[in-house]
What we know:
Blueprint lengths: L7 H26 L10 H55 L9 H22 L1 E2 L2 E2 L7 E4 L6 E9 L9 E9 L3 E7 L17 E6 L4 E6 L5 H9 L2 H4 L1 E5 L5 E9 L4 E8 L8 E2 L11 E2 L1 E5 L4 E4 L2 E2 L1 E3 L2 E5 L3 E7 L1 H5 L3 E9 L1 E4 L9 E4 L10 E2 L2 E2 L16 H52 L3 H28 L3 H5 L1
Antiparallel strand pairs: 1-2, 3-20, 4-19, 5-15, 5-20, 6-10, 6-12, 7-8, 7-11, 9-10, 11-14, 12-13, 15-16, 17-18, 18-19, 21-22, 23-24
Amino acid sequence: MNTIHANYASMVAQRSLMQQTRLLEQSLTRLSTGLRINRAADDPSGLIASESHRSDLVGIEAAMSNAGRAEQMLNAADAGLQELNTLLLDLQSIVLGAGDGTSNSGLDPTIRQQEIEAILEAIDHVANGTTFNGQQLLNGELGYVVENKSVTDIKSLQIHAARLGQGGASSVPVQIDVQTPAAKAGMFIDVDSTNASGTFFNGGGGSVTFEFSGTLGVQQFTFAPGTTITDMVDIINSFTGETGVEAAVSVAGESIVLTSSDYGSDAFVEARVIEGEDAGVLHIYDGDPGGGGAPTGWPEYRSEGSDAEVLVNGVLSVSKGLEVHSMNTLVDMSFQMTELMNLNQGSTNFQIMGGGASFQFDMDPQSDLVSSLGIESVTTGSLGGYSGTLASMRAGNTANLIDGDTDLAERIISEAIDSVTLSRARIGAFQRYTIGSSVRGLLVAMENTTAAQSQVRDADIAYETSALAQAQIIQQAAMYALGVANTQSATVLALLG
C-alpha cells in the first residue's frame, strides 16, 4: 500500500536511529569518564552499593590517617623516654661512683650532688617538654583519672590501658579481692635453748658462727654465750640492707624469728651453722621452739615466701609478692598492695573515670571500639618505684649523696630505669601490635572495598569500546534506512503523473 500521509518505514528507522544515538552517547560518556554509573538512572541499585562502598573507603582512609598520627605521637613519646633512660644511666653512674672511697676531698659528695641536681632538672625538662601537636606526652596528662582509691589498701598504682569507649562506658570499675595473702620466708633461731636466761646459750659450749642468706646477699654472724637476744636481733638487723633478712624476738621470747624483708616466692631466708654448735644442740628450726608444737631442728634450713592470689574484676592476676599485674577485658594495670590489705585478705575498689590517650582505628565513625593507652608522668616527683621517687635524691631529702641513704638512691634509680623501660616496651607493643595490626587490617579492607566499588561503578573499557563501534555501525545503517524510507512516498508521484 502506497500512501503520502503515513510513512511507517521512516518511523521505524527514526526510532532505531534515536535508540542507537542514545547508546552511542552512553558509550561515549562511559569511555570519557571511565565510569559505568554516571547518574542515578544508569543503575539505581548499583548506585546505592557504590555509594556505600565509597563511604566505607572514606572511613578506612580516616582510620589509616589516625593510625599514622598515633604512630608519630608515640614515636615522640618513645624518643623522650629514650632520652630519660640516658639521663638515668648517667645518674646511676654518679651514685655508684659516690661509694668508691678513693677520693679524699670533702667536696666530692657536694659536687656529685650538684651533678644530680642538674640531671634531675634535665629529667623534668624532658618530661615537660616532650609534646606532639600541642599535647603534653610525659608529664601525666595522658595518665588515667582514678577516683575513690584507698591509700590504706593500695600503695602505688599504674593504669596502662582501660576500655573507655567514646560511645560506651564513661568509667571503668575495678574490684580487687585478696584470696590468699602473700607471705614472707621465715624460720627460727633458738637462742635460749630452754635455759631461761634470755641470752644466747650453746649447751655449755663456746661461740657459734651462723651464716644467714637472703635475696640481697649473705653474711656471717658469731654469737658468744651470754649475748642478749635483743643484741643479737640488733646485730642481724644492722645488715638487713646487705642480706634482705630481718630479725625480731619471737612471741615466746626465747628465740629469734628470721624473715625475708620482701614478700613473695622470690624471697627466701637460708641459715646454717658454720662452726661451734655444741654436740646435741640444734639452733635452727622451722617453727618456734619455744612456742609449743613440735618444730623440727635443722643444721641447715631454707625457707621461701609465697605470692598472693588476687582477683581483679573476677580474674586471677599475676602477683609477685605484694606487686600485682592484672590484664582483663576492662583494664591493664599494675599495683602494690599495702601490708595491711595483704594480711587482712582485704577487698577494695575504685573507678577509672577517664584520661589516657585514646585512638580510633575503626572505619566506622560511630564505633565505640577505641584503643586506649596510658602514659604515666615521668617527672622527678613521679618517676621511681616502690622505694621512692627521684625527688628523694634532691638535696636535703632522704636519698641525697651528702648525708642521705645512697643505697636507697641506688634502688630508686634502678626502679626508675625499670619503669622507663617498661613504659617504652608498652608503647612499642602498642605500636607493633595494636597500630600495626589495625593498619594491616585496614589495608586489606581498602583493597577489597576498592575492588567491590570498581566492580559496581567502573566501566568495562573493552566492552564499552565494542558497544561504541556497534552503535556507530547501527546508527549509520539506520540513517541510510531513514534516507531510503523518506524517498518511498515520492514513488506515488509516478502514479499521479
